[in-house]
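Everyone, study these two lines:
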Amino acid sequence: VDELQSRGVAWLPFEEDAMADLAQIFRNMPDIEELFEETADGTFYGCEVPSPRGSARFILNKSAISENMRWLWAHDEETLALFDELARKANLLSVL
């Protein structure tokens, strides 16, 4: 955690099954090309994604820094709670 706070990057040990749940959420996201097309003009794009623990809802928009980058936010408290649960399961709460 100290390395992450000082450098911004670090190796973090985690529980593999918690990461599997997180990976499944991102596998269920719409195709990356669709996300880039839908947000190309600066329009916000919302999506609901099935997950092993219920739906996760996100908002996306393009970055002002780069046309090749998109911002992704949790849309609601339920989605934030899902990520908190996964962080707790993966033993990553100290990072948050």
Remarks:
- The two ends are 9 Å apart (CA to CA).
